[in-house]
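Collaborator request log, item 7. Partner lab (contact: R.S.) asked for a structural prediction of tRNA-intron lyase to inform their binding assays.
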Amino acid sequence: MKAILDGSTIRIGPEGLSLYEQGGYGRPGERGLNLSCEEALYLIQRGKLEVEGFDFESLLMHSVNQPENGGTFLRSYIVYRDIRERGYAVQRGPHDFRVFRRGQKPGKGTTQYLIRVLSERDPVAFPILIREVATAEHMRKNFVYAVVDDEEELTYYDIRFHRPKARESISLETGISAVPMGFSAMVAGEGAILLESLWFGTRLDQNRLILSPPEVLYLLDQGLLSFSGSLIDRNGYYASALSADNELNEKLSVYSALRRLGFTPRTGYKFGHHFRVYTESNSHSAMLVHAITEGAEIPISTISRSVRMAHSVKKKMLFACVQNEEIVYIEFARIKL
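Returned to partner:
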């Protein structure tokens, strides 16, 4: 089948409509079928198309060098080809690609995935990501990152909002006295026993419990803890703890929100994250949660390591974005299309 290059579009006459009807390629126009360069290259590789004045290599080079592609065309083509070879119809869409349900095609089918293409060195700007996930959710589609590494291999990540369901929480009826100990605080006696039963703190010995800064501040803010035998108050303790941990604000916001849901957040340091979170029971943590600021940017390579770690220990990987008084939980999961 013969085609010509017209700007950034490959045009075929009316005979090209069979490609659309049978395989979901291109978009019908007034004079035939309009193909994207990704579609044309794929069809050339499969021996189904000839573009006047170009072979595969020269058309690929032409597309890569177009200023509007910003040097990203090659990885876009690699993603397009991979999705096609997995048996899906795919078109340019509101993100980078829209992928139809397997066996369905444009015109009659339903879009299943909205795909954004990244390289392994790209940063993830969470304000943009949250908007894109919200758009996909509004359209009732799955939002996916297709990440192309430096060896041109692909990894797909399903990204969605996670809305935790609260479980019944146990409340304290009496205040407990604590002694500030640097950036921590110590509770002794009956108070230590009670807090430990609610999964606060770590045992120092049989009679004493050590509380972490988020635990201390949460209990102070709830009016369940007070300092005894010390001139330091909540604000003084907070200032001291903040001087040692510049992520304390975000961690405290997320810790408090998780506690209000009836969950048990504990340090996730050994997993490389802020919290491991127990949701259904306190015998196995279900999630790893990392608190981030509203405007956070994180390299996709860092997120990749996080997702792999979470998968290896059978947990969900969530980034908790602190937006004013709201916490937006974004879940990343590696998938196979």
